[in-house]
Amino acid sequence: xxQSKQRSHFPVHVAVFLAPAVLLYSVFMVMPLINxxxxxxxxxxxxxQMSYNGLQNYVKLFTDSNFxxxxxxxxxxxxxxxxxxxxxxxxxxxxxxxxxxxxxxxRNFFRTVLFMPTVLSVVIIGFIWQxxxxxxxxxxxxxxxxxxxxxxxxxxxxxxxxxxITVSLISVWQFVGIPMILFYAALxxxxxxxxxxxxxxxxxxxxxxxxxxxxxxLPTVGIVSVLTFVGNFNAFDLIYTMKGANAGPDxxxxxxxxxxxxxxxxxxxxxxxxxxxxxxxxxxFLIILTGVLLYMFLWARxxxxxxx
Amino acid sequence: MKPTPxxxxxxxxxxxxxIMILTIYGLIAIxxxxxxxxNSFKDKSAIFGAPFQFxxxxxxxxxxxxxxxxxxxxxxxxxxSSIVTLTSLILTLFIGAMAAFALAxxxxxxxxxxxxxxxxxxxxxxxLGTVGILRLMVSLKLVNTLTGLILVYVAQSLPxxxxxxxxxxxxxxxxxxxxxxxxxxxxxxxxGMVLPLVRPAIGAIGIFTMIPIWNDLWFxxxxxxxxxxxxxxxxxxxxxxxxxxxxxxxxxxxTLAMIPILLVYLIFSRQMIRxxxxxxxK
Lengths: 308, 282
What we know:
The structure holds two protein chains of two kinds.
Chain A: H1 2-8, H2 12-39, E1 42-44, E2 50-52, H3 56-63, H4 68-100, H5 105-114, H6 116-119, H7 122-133, H8 139-146, H9 160-175, H10 177-188, H11 193-200, H12 205-216, H13 218-231, H14 236-243, H15 256-265, H16 274-300
Antiparallel strand pairs in A: 1-2
Chain B: H1 5-39, H2 44-49, H3 63-71, H4 74-105, H5 111-123, H6 130-139, H7 146-170, H8 174-182, H9 187-197, H10 199-215, H11 218-223, H12 232-242, H13 247-281
């Protein structure tokens, strides 16, 4: 009796400890987020008055000729952006982590070097690559010529068919450090006893990696995938820096982040529209939520987490 | 049995291939950065004539840096970024540590619920609430102020900070706290006692909180785009937009923007990486 009474009591000092965090987080993150979702069901009139609009904004986003083509293209581009990260960034990250995990002075040096691009601002990275790929400067072309591949060079960032892939690969180049460091942490957490027996039996490093270590780090594979998925929707900065809000050429690099920005703030001729902007953000929210829930129920539940 | 020379050769190759791959990838990782650095110290003809060469006595030039320091308000941008990043950092760490302590230390009703509520922010990017945030900042008259940015960054950084710190705080031995309680220490004193014990974790979380705030473009662009409140990231973005054709200025401003964050990283990288891996090894 006494015990349960004590538990239901909410002591003053607990409230004092929690209040600032809960308050700031609620006022500046949760409430604006809920408010944004709510706004997606409203319309803003000439005098800034709000009127309930039901699902009309969503219908407009999916069907109106001013919105729908942009929305579907941004969604498709975002998907391509994501797939390139999953297929290129994460495997390279895993490979580098596996090589670094052997330890030693040389490898620790490489660990520091390989993570370097990740800590720089996307704006800086965007400009750096714009200069490197600029045909005027000719650095990329010079490099390719040095290995007799000069004919491959082209204005990759300027062509609609290659711009999105180029931008995605630049993002991969920058952020490969994140999966690398997460896989690395998981790999060096595996106790030596688990691989020792296999070593003694003469198993190759390749087999030990895929048969013993990789299954043990599957939970990290899941976390990295979810982080990659969510990270896609933050990819605004790079495209805005390299290609501007219009995500050229001809919207070839337009993703949800740039679409959200343009819809919210407008562009040359079109006025910004907060409620349509909120609708785009709400769609991003739904997509992220779906992805996270799928991960939680389909992956995290099935993959065995070993207590190491 | 003595290993044959062939076996030894095989072993040598097996050992050097990983280092070779790491070297190649290492070059890919730093090559673009090095290109910008070395060319920022050359005159224009050398930038284009011999981009791969290090600056020498003939090609060395600081003209880009002169243009940048004359034209751009870089010192002001640095000051803004420093104020925003450091204030957000201190607030996040202190407020976050308090909440993490409450969640780790006390078994009160709603503990799990509050922990869950706070961790939603780990998965959902705060940017999705931008429409709501801008409206809120307009009504609070915090548009184009550094305060507005700081409040958003603290809210953005709290979930992860609380999540990680509460895990570290659970590892602080209970005996220590109970002994202090018997001596009559208040709960606030005990919090003050636990704080230094999780210092390594606080240091690492600090760096991870700092980097995205310093590098952010989105919120400075939307909440504080005025030239008075521009951060380095926004300032560089706008400055470079104007000076596209002045390669000396572009290269030197990129270098200036890169150096502080690279220095912080190089100084703290060991501690940073150790803290991530500490979570794995325990």
